[in-house]
Amino acid sequence: MATQDDNVLTSVLRPLTYWYEQENIEEVAINNPGEIWLRLRGKRAHPWVMHKDPKLNKEYLVNLLYIIANLNDQEFDPHTVGGVPTVYTDIPGGHRFTGVAGRNIRYNFDDKDGVALSIRLYSDDVAFGFGDYGLTQGEELKEINPLKFIDTPSDAYERLLLAIRRGDHVLVSGGTGTGKTTFLNNLLKVLDIHKRVVTLEDTRELKVPHPNRVHIVLSRVKGSKNKDTEGMSDADAIDLIKRITPDAIIGGEISNKNAAAIWALMGSGHDNCMATIHAESPEAAYEAFIKCIMEQSPHINVEKTMEEMRRKLHVVQIVRDGNIRGVTAIT
User: Fold this and answer.
1) Which end of the chain, N or C, is surrounded by fewer C-beta atoms within 10 Å?
2) Residue 301 and residue 33: Cα distance in Å, rounded?
3) Cα–Cα distance between 261 and 241 in angstroms, integer?
4) Which of 137, 134, 166 lies closest to 149, judged by CA?
């Protein structure tokens, strides 16, 4: 028998259930009030589609998070320093619910705070058999990304484009004023526009052309004007990012505070993790990245981590001479 809490939750979720109870929906996501993204089931080149829905306004979404948190005896306070800005739970039907609000979430540069949520739908129907995963008796396993088999081009430009297209991780390295963030913004222009992009920055600098995007902001300065963002740690951000299903993760500049988090995300099975770092050469970029990681994880195996970085992480080195900037190396 449904409880009073169940009835309340069913009622308050009704504007969302209209969308996620449709057929062939795998996940729904809201990055910005008034818009809902649907991830469709099946083999599709571009699984995400967006619809406008004015009922999903900011007031409704934030109130929804408060209600869900209250019904599950969870702390939720997105506007107090040190408060918890996230809600994680299951909702009727066994669906996995993730919500976040406050100054950690921005959509446009002039936003003061935002709200985002994701609902991963549960189904007791096994929609995919082993064959859909490329597992067939008597046949060898195959690489599903054909770009992995392409030989690395000798041309630096083509080498970089191939790395982006096949989902490799990229670190843009350079000294002060070399234009690292500007170059990273240019990389975003060649990233598949249909990808779902999540950014992780201490200030909003990245210009993401992709319409399906979420911007997470973590303040690095205690007592700053953006101190409300101190409620979310890098570990919190990792948990959030993993739950909202990004196709690409774009970080700001690597620092002592965020290096371990970004490196963890690069090893979590996501494609196209990109960031910038202050260094004078590709080798120095790897070393600086590891040094920053050790501030949070002092007992890492440096030799093993360096080997892994060289294998999975491309470095684009930028050098500046007066007003002339240029790429001098791509690993």
Assistant:
1) N
2) 44
3) 11
4) 166
